[in-house]
Structure formats: C-alpha cells, structure tokens
Prior knowledge:
Layout (H helix, E strand, L loop, with lengths): L27 H8 L14 H10 L6 H14 L12 H13 L3 H8 L3 H4 L4 H8 L1 H10 L4 H4 L3 H15 L2 H15 L6 H21 L3 H15 L1 H15 L5 H14 L5 E6 L2 H11 L8 E7 L2 H14 L1 E2 L5 E2 L12 E6 L5 E8 H9 L31 H10 L5 H12 L4 E6 L7 E5 L4 H9 L6 E6 L2 E3 L10 E6 L11 H4 L3 H13 L1 H4 L10 E4 L8 E3 L6 E3 L11 E5 L5 E5 L3 H8 L4 E2 L1 E3 L5 E10 L4 H11 L3 E7 L6 E10 L5 H9 L4 E6 L1
Parallel strand pairs: 2-6, 7-11, 14-16
Antiparallel strand pairs: 1-2, 3-5, 4-5, 5-6, 7-8, 9-10, 9-11, 12-20, 13-18, 15-16, 15-17, 19-21, 19-22, 20-21
Amino acid sequence: xxxxxxxxxxxxxxxxxxxxxxxxxxxxxxxxxxxxxxxxxxxxxxxxxxxxxxxxxxxxxxxxxxxxxxxxxxxxxxxxxxxxxxxxxxxxxxxxxxxxxxxxxxxxxxxxxxxxxxxxxxxxxxxxxxxxxxxxxxxxxxxxxxxxxxxxxxxxxxxxxxxxxxxxxxxxxxxxxxxxxxxxxxxxxxxxxxxxxxxxxxxxxxxxxxxxxxxxxxxxxxxxxxxxxxxxxxxxxxxxxxxxxxxxxxxxxxxxxxxxxxxxxxxxxxxxxxxxxxxxxxxxxxxxxxxxxxxxxxxxxxxxxxxxxxxxxxxxxxxxxxxxxxxxxxxxxxxxxxxxxxxxxxxxxxxxxxxxxxxxxxxxxxxxxxxxxxxxxxxxxxxxxxxxxxxxxxxxxxxxxxxxxxxxxxxxxxxxxxxxxxxxxxxxxxxxxxxxxxxxxxxxxxxxxxxxxxxxxxxxxxxxxxxxxxxxxxxxxxxxxxxxxxxxxxxxxxxxxxxxxxxxxxxxxxxxxxxxxxxxxxxxxxxxxxxxxxxxxxxxxxxxxxxxxxxxxxxxxxxxxxxxxxxxxxxxxxxxxxxxxxxxxxxxxxxxxxxxxxxxxxxxxxxxxxxxxxxxxxxxxxxxxxxxxxxxxxxxxxxxxxxxxxxxxxxxxxxxxxxxxxxxxxxxxxxxxxxxxxxxxxxxxxxxxxxxxxxxx
Length: 697
C-alpha cells in the first residue's frame, strides 16, 4: 500500500466542501519527520495527529481521542525506520489516509483502524496484538484491509485481496471506506512510480475502486479519484480540459450572479437556505464538453441549495420553477426515488433572462453529508443505538442498509467463482453496471422485491429469486402479461416466474446472451458445462406440425339461403351459435361462413364476392377451432385430449407446432354437442397444468 504520486490538479483545494475555512494545507512530510524526533507526553495527543483530531472533533465534538493516541503510538513505533519511495517517513501515509476519513466525518473506530491499516501487512505487529489492544471491531477492519500474501497466491494475489476485502465489506462497510481513502492517497502520490505501473494502478482504480466509491456513495473520494485516473490514462484530454478550465477562470463567470438571484428569490419566499456555486471536477467538465461541444460559462459549475428539511426542498423547487424558466427535461427527483447508493437530491435546470442555463441541485444538509461522504458519514451502521450526534434534521432521512442489493449479489456470486481470473473479470463487469432497478415479486409486498442491475432480464430475476432452481424456469409474467424470459425488466415491474414441474429441466444455451447478472451467468455456464449434450442443440431438420384429423367436416349447423349450396364454416374465425355471421360464395359455388367481425369479411366485400344470408339451425351442436398455448412438458397432448373428452366434445382435428422457447401452440377443431358448453370447455383446457392461454381462432 505504499504507491506514490501526485496530481497537481486534484489536490484538496479542488474540494472546498471538505476543508474547513481557514485551515492551512498540511505538510505531511514535516509532520512525519517531526513525529520521529521524540516521544510525546501521555496526557496529550502527538503533534503529528493534531490536525486529525481537529477534523474529527469538528464532526464528533464528544469523541474520545485516547484510542487515536494509542493507535498512533503503535503505528508510529511499528513503522519507524520505514520510508516511502518518495523518501518520506512511512507514517505519513496512514496519517494522510486517516485525515481524509476524518474530514469526511468518520467515527473514532474507523480512524483507529485507519492508523493501523498497514501495520499487520508491513510490520511485525500481529492481528492478535491489535485485537488485544483495540478490540475485535478494529481487528476485523484491519484484517479486512490487509492484503493476502503474494508469496502464497502469486498472480492471483490482487483479485484474491479484493475478494477478501469485499467479503469483509459485506460484514462492515468501513473496510472499504479505508481502502478507498488509502487508494486516494496512493493515487495522489503516484508520481514516483514507473509510467507502466502508474497505468496499471490507475486502470484497477478506474475499473474497481471508483465504481465501489460510487456504490458506497462516497462522491468526494470518487470525483478526485476520477480526476487522478483521467490525468494518468488520458493525459492529452486531461491537458485539453485543464486548458478549458484555465481559460474560463479568466472570463466572467455567470454562476455567482445566478446564485445571488436564487438567494433573493428564496429570501423573498421566506425559505432559509444556503446557496453556493460548486465547480465541476475535471472529468465532469470533460463529459460536458464531449456532449455539448462548445462550453458556456454556466457549464463549469452548478448551483447548490442546502435547506433544513425535505419539505423545504420541494418549496425551493416550486420557487425556482416559478421565478425562472425551467428546463423540464433536466428535472430528476432523487428524494422520492433515491439512488441505490444512498444519494438523495432534486436536480433541475433553469434558464435566465440572459440566456444562460444553470443546473441546480437542491438537498438538505444531511443529504449533502451523505452525498459527499456516503457510508462514511453514517458512522457505525452496526451500532445498536443511534449515534449521539443525530440531530432533528436527520429524523426523516434514510438509514444505511447494512447489505445493499448490489453487495448481496456480489457476495452470492463470488462463492460460485473459485477461479481468480473469473472472479476478477466478472467483478469488473458487475461494477460497470452503474444503475439499479427494483422489481416486485408476484405478491407485490415490500419483502417481495428484487434489486437488479439496469438491463436485467427475467432470467436474472429467476436466478436472483430461486438460485439454481431457476434452471427449470419456463416462462414469466411481467405486469400480468406473459413474456419471454429474455425480456428486459424496468424499474417497478411486477414479475411472476413460472417453473417447470420436471426437475431435470435446464437452461437453454441462448440464456447466456440475455443474462446480465454474474450469479445468473455463472449458474447457467456451470450447468451447460455439466450437460455438454444440451449446450448446443443438435442440427435436426425442422419438424412439421403434428396433426390429428377426424372424419367429420362441413358447415355444422349453419344454413345458407341458397338452394343446394355447400356450406363451410371458415377456419379463420370458426363461428358458432349464436355468433352473428355472414356468408360469401366462393369458387365452386360453395358458401363460406364467417363471423361478422372477421377480417376476411371486409376482404370478401372488397373482392366483390356475392353475399349470402346465413342462419343457424335449431340444433344446438356446433363446430369451433380453439388455440391453446402452453409450456412444453411430457404427456401434455394426452392431458389436453383427456380434458376435452371429459367435456363430451369430439376432436375433429388437432395440430401441435414444434416448441419455441419451451412454448407449444396447439390448434384444435372440435365438435360440441351444445354451443353453450364452450366456456366450460375452455376453462377445463386452461386448468391443464402448463396451459396458460386458450382462445378461439
């Protein structure tokens, strides 16, 4: 964990919201060397962590700093004599990491573990010593951040280290908080490394650490990491963006004037609010430039409005949309529908009379703390009692989920990926999904929800709900309508998953094309490997539909007002009494009878076919064609035929089409003794297991 570098543009000054007004920038090299000059009296903190204590007390005024003092003494003594590649005393690194977390508002246990996070890995200190001195909680966090031995794991050391860290994060998210702060300081000081090593570390940061920072809501770390990675991996584009920002600095910035106008509007409305201008970081400016081309002055920042309560957010929004011209397409409500990483705010954009368009973010102060520091700002989410610093403005805020949906999925599938290469590649693919959706199970209760990545299909929902039992999934209903398993899901959909009764059923090879979650892909891939004969369907010639044809035909009990004419019931609409019908003379002088609303009636009239009046005989028997759709299973045709026979109905003909996506379509032409028995017959056919729809042709 001793990587080194610095990026002059991603320094703490670029994040003014994290620095207390008037605080000077720390010289960690001087502090680290001062720490080596002599012991510190027992009744006060060492001077080297005075700034850490100051930052910590700013968020936690009543914090007990004795634990920090003991942790620093152990860290300084164990790292004494070690230096970083830049020549600085090694203790400057854990000090810097701890200061980053203290500025974000981390609680004392996190800071204690942060000071000790490299001791077990790089010194003679053992986990047993840490446990004896600081307790199980600090020991667990330090162990979670400690790398696995490269001697034991070789090339797999990095993926296995992340696997270990993620499993530990599943039990305590503070493990990943320390890792993110550790990587941020290493990225700041990466300049002494060889360019190829800088690029390798930057790529891992881009693919794994930045997405994790996004998911944990730690935007303050995420944005600076993005800028540091941007400078290393895309130096030309970074320089171009830096030049754009430098050029803008010499021009008139319209955002301060817009912010002042917003202050005036809110002051007149009697809404207490703090309005500030937030400059965009480098990567954000770069994205805006790529999307819009030429940048305007208002594109280099956003207006942030901070209020006390949730209701004030919507009051501010109403005033903004009343007094300015809103850009409706830019409005997003992340308070009513929070992001999966704890983020809550209202986003909008307004146009000024001068022609500028300014983006505005509205949030409470508690939302702002969580937006900047994510899980770090929530303190210890596993404490049995609420934190002492909770205030009235936090009452309605969301609490930290100790096991977010994405983390639960990650922990589940990593158990099925013993191969480090598979784990590493799938982890990157999983973290590339930057949005989540929530779908509801059939009952629609709060406990019946599934969290899935955006773009997930019914296949992903099946494996998320049933695990390996989803191998037998044969269909799904989304919002009450039958749909293909490959169908993508949207946020808020209700899903009913249908499983085959045959336990030997397995997934089709093309499921891999539609599965987005690692859990589904790993499970499907494992099943296909274990059943190679089913992985690729045999190239057999297309089967013709299976047909069973009876001996009867004709027009049933339909009578045409045309002497000696042969009457036929149309197969396209199969009319039965008491349907309103129309007859038309076709070639050979026969009369074809259609239901009056059949599409063929309009075609016949357009062709000038002779229309003939048709009526029904007094007899009750009739002929009808029914379409039955079902999931494929053994003995289905026999069961359907038996159900038809129980209703006293004769099968005139039957056609069974080859299965498509495990679904089968049946067409039956039936002779009923009484037309009034048709609804009962259709219900009996629908009751056959596997049949999901029966309708007239």
